[in-house]
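Good morning C.,

I know you're traveling, so I'll keep this short. The sequence:
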Amino acid sequence: MKVSLFATCLVDMFHSHVGKAAVELLEQLGCEVDFPESQVCCGQPAYNSGYVKNSKEAMKRMMDAFEESEYVVGLSGSCAYMFHEYENIFKGDPVWGPKAKALKQKTYEMTEFIVDVLKVEDVGATFQGHVTFHTSCHMTRLLGVTEAPMKLLENVKGLEYTELPEKHHCCGFGGTFSVKMSRISEQMVDEKVQHIDETEAEYLIGADCGCLMNIGGRIDRLGKQVKVMHIAEILNTR
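The tokens, ready to paste straight into the viewer:
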């Protein structure tokens, strides 16, 4: 099965180790992975900030980049959902509308792809540690991926899991929201860190590097000892 990795900007620029872990994991599961080098930002930050016209240029480039892909697997539920949103944004466009629909039909968040397409719930991972899991807003509420990450974590040998209190609450990132509304964002992420403390977990796991960067940054500033990891890293441990 051929898979094109949609790394996302944050993985490409700040968390390349997550991309490496994802590639190794997918290859262990029998996938042939490629990385279209023409991929750029999915356009979500600009689009959500109201710069619709400008963001469309990035979207068109992404549709071209993945046009020949059999499957597109994203490392962020938020960015994967943005690919799904292209269909609405280009609705009625005779050229880009069909391309947007085609991209939506073959795009999956990584855990969703493993569970729903590859039909694998145990990837053979082993991880010794006490973890909790942050459910990102876009991935759960818009993309609708809620069960796949938990099914995979349940089968990681040695892993101790505690559910995060008020897990449905936003971490306060929201792309440019954390910049434009920094004081509100800070209060939101402080609440998230407080709930992480309540679990007494050693590791915070997530499937969206935007959220993990935001929460991890606050954890570091507050001097907490919790380590932040993408779920791809956990599933790639042996």
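Safe travels,
E.
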